[in-house]
Design a protein that fits this description.
- By secondary structure, the chain is α/β, with parallel strands linked by helices.
- It has a six-stranded parallel sheet, with helices on both faces. A two-stranded parallel ribbon has the order 7-9.
- The radius of gyration is 18 Å and the shape is globular.
- It contains seven helices and ten strands.
- The longest helix is centred in the last third of the chain and has 22 residues.
- Helices cover 42% and strands 17% of the residues.
Length: 241
């Protein structure tokens, strides 16, 4: 496949490029600074995702797009949304149908399998990361409004580590201990770009369920409510790729 990778110089993006090449795909990476991917055999297109003309050039001839875009520390949260708008428009013009994006587990949806703790956590997350979550919802709304074949991955806290293949994808309760290696996230993104298992869905993607050996049920509920809120809020910061 011809795959375009956005955010290719970040933690997740680098893993996506490596995983896609390992699976035999031809990779194009749209990057602000080509020197940041020195040594990569990906085709590099220099420019910014907010530049519509550059995005058109990068999208042309691709079979699918994988976006691991995330904002830098002081960057406007709306910048990623504007970039995604350019990408979706370019895909329409160029006849590219498939896109896989990363949104993060901090984006909770009505259809999520969350109990009272998860719902309470959502209120706290909204208070701590209101602007980021607003933009994540706009990005999801943008995908839902069109007719593209999209998948929006929502990982919890991302950690460095090798691909294990032992990750979960779908709708399930999340908790403080949930995390995912960037390599496993990359594997999920590339496989969904190849053959979507979750078309037009926003699945949670996490490693194996942590085994609880600590406090009793009441204490775990309290820790879960507070911890899930804090963890989901941190996702918005730690996962900035």
């Amino acid at each position: 496949m011809q795959l375009l990778v956005l955010g290719a110089t970040g933690r997740t993006g680098r893993e996506v490029v490596a995983r896609a090449r390992a699976r035999g795909h031809a990779v194009t990476a749209l990057v602000r600074d080509p020197a940041a991917l020195d040594g990569s055999d990906a085709r590099l297109v220099a420019g910014d995702v907010t530049d519509a003309a550059v995005v058109d050039e990068a999208v042309r001839g691709q079979d699918a797009v994988i976006s691991a875009l995330g904002r830098s520390g002081g960057e406007d949260p709306a910048a990623v949304t504007r970039g995604l708008e350019h990408v979706v428009a370019a895909m329409g013009r160029e006849g590219v149908r498939r896109i896989v994006v990363v949104l993060g587990a901090g984006l909770l949806l009505p259809e999520d399998d969350q109990g009272p703790g998860g719902r309470a956590a959502a209120l706290l997350v909204r208070a701590l990361n209101a602007r980021d979550l607003e933009e994540k919802h706009r990005q999801l709304d943008l995908l839902r409004a069109g007719d593209l074949e999209w998948v929006a991955a929502r990982p919890p806290r991302l950690v460095d580590g090798p691909a294990t293949g032992a990750y979960r994808a779908g709708m399930f309760p999340t908790g403080l201990g949930d995390r995912l290696t960037t390599a496993d996230l990359a594997d999920f993104l590339v496989r969904e770009a190849e053959h979507p298992i979750h078309p037009r869905q926003a699945p949670l993607v996490a490693g194996p369920r942590p085994v609880s050996t600590g406090p009793g049920p009441a204490a775990r509920v309290l820790v879960g409510v507070v911890g899930a809120a804090v963890a989901a809020a941190l996702v918005q910061r730690v996962n900035r790729r």
